[in-house]
User: Which sequence fits this backbone?
């Protein structure tokens, strides 16, 4: 398994904007997340995916962990994983994690690609975002799904959107999901 590192800050940027990728390492973030999800328009997702292998080393020049945030849409997820798992990748950021079975399937794909592409077995870690009530209800099973899970968080905007509430300044609507997630992660 990969060595756990402190991740105090993450810089998320669209992989399809070369000037952002080229300057990412100068920003001092502990992790650089090359985004294939929200910041990439639908029409550009395939071409953005093709940019990932060449962007991994560029984004990681300053020593930051390099992750790729994939689309958790069945029509895109498999191709995103195939496009992301290359030398230089430290982890995948998985939005809208909802089940342990889903995480185990992702891990199986990663393991196959690590073997095929000469990566150290177990190196690629997962950062999961719980962004739906369904994901929150399954959070304990999700947390136990793989030892590759490095981080888990509540995706505030999408979680609130799923609940049909506006995020508030005091974040009271997040008290339960955050407390549940922290408790599960501490126990697991």
Assistant:
């Amino acid at each position: 398994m990969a060595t756990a590192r402190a991740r105090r800050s993450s810089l998320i940027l669209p992989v399809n904007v070369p000037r952002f990728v080229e300057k990412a390492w100068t920003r001092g973030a502990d992790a650089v997340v090359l985004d294939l999800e929200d910041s990439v328009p639908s029409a550009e997702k395939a071409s953005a995916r093709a940019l990932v292998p060449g962007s991994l080393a560029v984004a990681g020049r300053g020593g930051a962990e390099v992750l790729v945030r994939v689309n958790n849409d069945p029509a895109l997820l498999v191709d995103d994983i195939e496009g992301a798992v290359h030398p230089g990748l430290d982890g995948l950021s998985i939005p809208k994690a909802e089940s342990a079975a889903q995480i185990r399937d992702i891990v199986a794909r990663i393991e196959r690609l690590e073997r095929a592409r000469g990566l150290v077995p177990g190196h690629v870690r997962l950062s999961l975002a719980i962004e739906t009530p369904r994901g929150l209800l399954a959070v304990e099973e999700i947390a136990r799904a793989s030892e590759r899970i490095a981080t888990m968080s509540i995706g505030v905007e999408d979680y609130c959107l799923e609940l049909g509430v506006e995020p508030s300044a005091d974040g009271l609507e997040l008290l339960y999901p955050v407390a549940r997630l922290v408790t599960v992660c501490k126990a697991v």
User: Anything to note?
Assistant: The two ends are 17 Å apart (CA to CA). The beta strands are 10-14, 31-35, 65-69, 91-94, 125-130, 149-154.
